[in-house]
User: What shape does this take?
Amino acid sequence: MADLLTLVVIGLGTYALRAAFLVMAHRTPPAPVTRLLPYVGPAVLGAIVVPAFVAPHGAIAFAQTAPALLAAAAAWLAWRYVKRNLPIALFGGLAVWWLSSWAISAAGGLGLGPS
Amino acid sequence: MTSDSVTTTRTPPLSPPRTALADPAVGRALRDTLPVVLAYAPFGLALGATLGATHLPAWIAWASSPLMFGGAAQLLAVQMLDGGARAVLVVLGALVVNARLLLYSAAIAPHTTGWRARWRWLAAYLLADPVYALTITRFTGDHDDGPRERLRYFFTVGVAFWPAWLGLTGAGVLLGGALPASLPLGLAAPLTFLLLLLPMLSSRPAYAAAVTGGLVAVAASGLPLGLGLLAGAAAGIAAGAAMGGRLAGSRG
Assistant: This one.
């Protein structure tokens, strides 16, 4: 029950963060802030995804980093050229990740890889 | 009159009933949301399986879905609780990860003028990453949606995504350990967030914001409690605004 209570507290705090600006009476922020807002989405999502691809397990290591970057490139290309189809881009990226992870571990087993 | 009779041969003789589904904003929102829900399926299932694999009672771990409605903080909080971390630290860590929602709230608020207060209170609960990404891309795009269209678009995206997220994470909890063993899904979450990011990269300052945010987050990834994410976000926003200001200045 203590765990549930902790989750409830986080839920209330999370709601407060989401509501902070939405429910304020004056919703037009001052001009210096307005200039920053268009970059919130790209900056936050960039800060989430780049570390996850460059250092999947918290550290840069060829056997993990290379397949993750290949998968990101594949998803990006698929999104760009297959009519911005999200499921194809996502599952294409996952497939490239699986294949390249398998290929690198197989090459490592044969003594071809950098490991 | 004659021109009317000519056009009726080409268009349906009766206009469709104005139900919610026939509303253009609702239809557009559903078409935009469905692919995102499909793309979220591996992430939601994998997260549910991870939640279910902790020593927490399954329903309590899953309750993080309706309580937080955001995968990153759910994962952090439930894993910290599973590891026996102190409640104060768990709350602190999850709220640092979710501090980006404060930025989302500020960015979306100017587009909600004309909405009644009760809709804005409700909208706050639904403001998750995919809901923010879809709606801000629509609201800042080359459209002239009024407050009513924006309201319908936002709530259709949110109300469509909410049961999908609860269902996907619930299915992951129920399917349990069978999923990750047979099907590695570790990269599903970053790939999903990458696909939310790509439509936002519509200008050079936006690219600068994303690249700077990413590189600073990598450099700061050693910081505790997920503070590297906040450091990256702050640096990325500053870089985007600096380049945007310089471009505007050179044009003016």
Remarks:
- Residues 201-252 of chain B form one domain.
- The two ends of chain B are 52 Å apart (CA to CA).
- Chain B is about 75% helix and 0% strand.
- The mean pLDDT of chain B is 86.
